[in-house]
Amino acid sequence: MRILFIGDIVGRPGRECVARLLPSLRAQHKIDLVIANGENAAGGFGLSPKTAQEILDAGVEVITLGNHTWAQKEIIPYLDTDVPVIRPLNYPPGTPGRGWLRVSTRQGTDIAIVNIMGRVFMDPLDSPFRAADAVLAELADSIPVVVDFHAEATSEKVAMANYLDGRVSAVLGTHTHVPTADARVLPEGTLYVTDVGMVGPYNSVIGAETDAMVRRFVTQLPVRQNRRDQIEGPVSFNAVLLEIDSGTGRGRSIRRIDIIDEPPAER
Fold first, then answer.
1. For the segment 99-152, what is each residue's pLDDT rounded down to a tens digit?
2. Which residues constitute the domain of residue 250?
3. Active site (catalytic) residues
4. CA 192/CA 129 separation, integer angstroms
5. C-alpha separations of 224 from 44, 103, 215 in Å
6. Cβ contacts of 69 within 8 Å, gap of 6 or more
């Protein structure tokens, strides 16, 4: 089975890029399931029901989230519906939404998608390691499991991957928007990459306006990041293509798909 996992979608440029590229990528690579992190899809912060539907209409089948889950207030009741959108599993009990989802691929194989958030340099949530143990205990049968580990620290991501090696099919890092070059198969058959990257403006600072972000670092003054939907020009499309044995759930291969996409001159 082949799964495409798309890095953090940033604002309108990211959403439109996914819509442009996904149909041809799906046909070219014979993809059975598409997952994308959408926690920056609505103007660069959070996900709204409208932007979620736009991403789903583009061909993404499951959307994961992260530390900007609650940035758009309309998402709160939306997460309690049956839409295929999940937020980090290790939010406290009673938080709206769910942290994992069982779906079927186009070839009819059941698979679990799990969203977990790290704690190092992030919001203080429940232990991601204990949360992973809990959901794997709940998934008593041996179906393939793909984990989106939304975390800042490289060390925490590598530790999680090794902790889950052989127990899940893939651990895929998101959040930093910077694609890493360490995609590999771990010793017990789990596919891993420290960060998938993003789908967002190429000439930017992790998807945000370059001048504003430079000014923030130089002056140490707060700067409004309100132009992620207005950044024009090429878009960076970062994703990984996973090949997983449908029977055993073991990963066979993982490879990067990185494209610099030039939008049409006129929208």
1. 999 999 988 899 999 999 999 999 889 999 999 999 999 987 779 999 999 999
2. 2-261
3. 68
4. 16
5. 12, 38, 11
6. 39, 46, 47, 75, 87, 88, 91, 97
